[in-house]
Structure formats: structure tokens, C-alpha cells
Design a protein that fits this description.
3-stranded antiparallel sheet; single chain; mainly beta; Immunoglobulin-like
Length: 91
């Protein structure tokens, strides 16, 4: 299914406080992944851009860059590695 939301990503600082001023980008992919990411209230939402092929596993790498809204000039970087396995059979 095209346009289906799959996962929401959130960045936190070392005190476990959510960082709302975050941008997300899909980077360094080894295959042509059928996914994109959009920003939704400081969260990154990974969604499908086309129908997924049954029986495939995809690796999606996402980088997040956050500015700390409490301390000017402090920037955090977070990397996410997401594995998406598409079932061979409908369940």
C-alpha cells in the first residue's frame, strides 16, 4: 500500500527530554528504498512511497539533527537504523 505510515521517530537528549526542533533525513541507503520521511510536530514519520514487494527486507538509515530549545547553540545528532521486513504471505 502506497502512502502508509510505518514508524515515528523521536529524538531525545541525555536527560530523556524530547527535542522538538529536529529535522530527519533518509541517508546512505544501499538499495532504492520505497520509503520517505516527513516531519510531524518534531517527529519523523517514515512512510511508503510505493507498494512493497513481498518477501523483501529493507534497511533504512535515518539521521536526525536536533537543536536544544533550552540551550542555544547545542546541537544533537542521532542515527537510526530501521529494518523493515515485508511478509511473504498476508496475515
Amino acid at each position: 500500500m502506497c502512502g502508509q505510515d510505518l514508524i515515528r521517530l523521536v529524538a531525545y537528549d541525555q536527560q530523556n527530554v524530547r527535542l522538538p526542533m529536529t529535522t530527519f533525513a533518509i541517508v546512505d541507503n544501499t538499495d532504492d528504498v520505497p520509503f520517505a520521511i516527513r516531519l510531524d510536530h518534531g517527529r519523523g514519520v517514515v512512510y511508503t512511497t510505493r507498494a512493497l514487494v513481498a518477501g523483501r527486507t529493507h534497511t533504512v538509515r535515518v539521521n536526525a539533527r536536533s537543536r536544544d530549545h533550552r540551550r542555544a547553540g547545542v546541537v544533537y545528532e542521532t542515527s537510526f537504523i530501521i529494518y523493515i521486513a515485508v511478509a511473504s504471505f498476508p496475515y
